[in-house]
Amino acid sequence: MSDIHPSSALQPASIKRPFRWHIVVFMAPALLVYTAIMILPLIETLRLSFYNTVDGAQSFVGFANYQVLFGDVRWARDFWNALTNNLIFFAIHMCVQNPIGIALAALLSLPKLRFAAFYRTAIFLPTLLSFVIVGFIWKLILSPIWGVAPWLMSLAGAKWLFAPWLGQSGPALIAVSLISVWQYVGIPMMLIYAALLSIPEEVVEAAECDGITGWSQFWKIKLPLILPAIGIISILTFVGNFNAFDLVYTVQGALAGPDMSTDILGTLLYRTFFGFQLQLGDRSMGATIAAVMFVIILAGVSFYLFAIQRRMRRYQF
Asked: pTM for the complete prediction?
């Protein structure tokens, strides 16, 4: 008599799936390129922040560079000034760029809007322009000598409001931030526009049957459904703003004038690492600033992933 239990004969045999080597083959080139231009430079930057040049040789100094950055009066003043300006730069983009992008996307998604394709192209076009072109054009526009801004404001009877904003310490950072908003407002607009188009028609029709139409429909129905897209846009804005350098460098130069009023972490890193004019480059301190920037960005992204995104998923239908 066989010792095999009758129920065991009914159990399906486990099928061992072969390893999908083609996935590794297709991912290997991208992984190698990403490692070569992203991972290895990041590791080398973090390593370099713990070293310094002593008697012409690289020596391990631990957290001494960080102590200098946060403890030395001159270094700490420049760092906290750049970080404060970066936070203002980010806040202006969050409070101006993203709401305008959401509003434009809502308008462009209206079914009866004429020339919607033209408007989308016109608004998104500055995003494709080089930051050098954008910075140079806006310097010409806002110039009090040969710019067209004073003339245009005089046509509107508001020439008394014009001032050399890029040359004053107070409004310079706001002016540069608004130039960046003008260039990149097309990105949140297109992402939100795509999210609005992905909303099922059944949801919209059900809202219309309940008498919810117009802007009330957007606030009560569509906005909660596109919150994940808004969250992604917010974290992309955070990462992009704390990596910003090019536009400030083009408009205000490496010194981020006037009087360091537009200095952000990117320009501070550039001057520290490569040097500028009479300031000699310091690779170790530059790597230290870059490491602090990496920690700030990592903390912001982690907060979004583990605190905000989880709550949004919890309340999704």
From this structure: 0.87
